[in-house]
Amino acid sequence: MPKHIVILGSLDTKGHEAQYLKALIEAQGFKTVLVDTSIGGEPSLQPDVSSEEVARLGGGNIRDIRASRNTGQVTPIMIKGAGIKVQELLAKGLLDGIIAFGGASNTTSATSVMKALPFGIPKLMVSSTASMPAYAAKYIGTKDITMMHSVVDISGINDLTKAVLERAAGAICGMAAASSGPVKPVSTSPIIAMTTFKFAEECGQHAMDLLEKKGYTVIPFHAQGIGDSAMEELIEQGLFHGVLDLVPAGVIEELLGGNRTTGPHRLEAAGRIGIPQVYTPCGFDMLSCGPLSRREAGDPLWTTLRLSERKIFIPDEFRVQARTRGDEVCRVAEVVARKLNESKGPVKFFIPTRGWSSLSTKGGDLYEPLTDALFAPALRKHLRPDIEVSELPMELNSPGFAEVLVTALDGMTRESLGNKA
Question: What is the pLDDT of residue 68?
Answer without folding.
Answer: 86
